[in-house]
Design goal:
Helix 1 packs across helix 5. By secondary structure, this protein is an alpha/beta fold. It starts with 15 loop residues before the first strand and ends with a helix. It is built from 5 helices and 6 strands, in the order βαβαβαβαββα. Helix content is about 45%, strand content about 20%. The chain has a single domain, classed as 3-Layer(aba) Sandwich (Rossmann fold), CATH 3.40.50.960.
Length: about 160
């Protein structure tokens, strides 16, 4: 049996695009802070990072599609918080499906860091609160996946 696993080792700083939703901006900013902090702590150069703000989570997949050829990975960040209408299901489902489709068919890793929570408190807990920071988790996943894709392609 052969086991192939991505394990990040600093060599050349990878180009990473981070697409962030402005909606629920305080949550998005906390996710972005965790993401950037982790990337720079692990040796990724600030010059290799681009942050692209979009109006809401619904706009994330279309934006990712536009930038796929510029990066070694794309991290998506945002928060869709359940409200009193079915709007949550439509937006959360469309965003998840759009990102999943791009991740499945695209040439680079696309990391899903969009929180889909029942309450604002749950979103705060996952953006630097008691449940950690999913932006930081997304950064780690991106680096691991870049390494894995390189191993799988023989690079």
């Amino acid at each position: 049996m052969t086991v192939i696993q991505g394990q990040w080792q600093v060599k050349d700083s990878p180009r990473i695009g981070i697409v962030v939703s402005q909606f629920n901006q305080n949550i998005s900013e906390a996710l972005l802070e965790g993401c950037l902090s982790t990337l720079t702590r692990l040796g990724v150069s600030n010059d290799s990072l681009d942050v692209i703000w979009v109006p809401g989570a619904f706009e994330i997949p279309g934006t990712v599609k536009q930038i796929l050829d510029r990066y070694d990975a794309v991290i998506t960040l945002g928060a869709v918080i359940r409200g009193e209408t079915p709007h949550f299901e439509y937006v959360a489902g469309a965003v998840a499906a759009g990102i999943a489709d791009l991740a499945r068919t695209g040439p680079i890793p696309i990391i899903f860091g969009v929180l889909t929570t029942n309450t604002a408190e749950e979103a705060r807990d996952r953006s630097g609160g008691k449940s950690g920071n999913k932006g930081s988790d997304g950064a780690l996943a991106a680096l691991e996946m870049i390494s894995l894709y390189q191993k799988l392609s023989g690079a």
